[in-house]
């Protein structure tokens, strides 16, 4: 496993994304977000880079730049 400092616990990840921990659990169950487990205690861990990628997708949906560049 990579360095544990690269990961956030579920409460930290929820705060980072601005959602509740239950939302993250639901996203995990639906397969919408990757979850890693702590090798010792089994806690859910979320890789910060993956959370950043998710935020980038939400901020700029596909095709948003193309639409803004179209002549009116």
Structure explained in plain terms:
- By secondary structure, the chain is an alpha+beta fold.
- The chain has a single domain, classed as Multidrug-efflux Transporter Regulator, Chain: A, Domain 2.
- Helices cover 49% and strands 12% of the residues.
- The protein has helices at 10-17, 21-29, 48-59, 64-69; strands at 7-9, 36-37, 44-47.
- Strands 1-3-2 form a three-stranded antiparallel sheet.
- A hairpin with a 6-residue loop joins β2 (36-37) and β3 (44-47).
- The chain is globular and about 55 Å long.
- The mean pLDDT is 86.
- Residues 7-52 form the HTH merR-type domain.
- Pfam families: HTH_17.
- This is Helix-turn-helix domain protein.
- One of its GO terms (molecular function) is DNA binding.
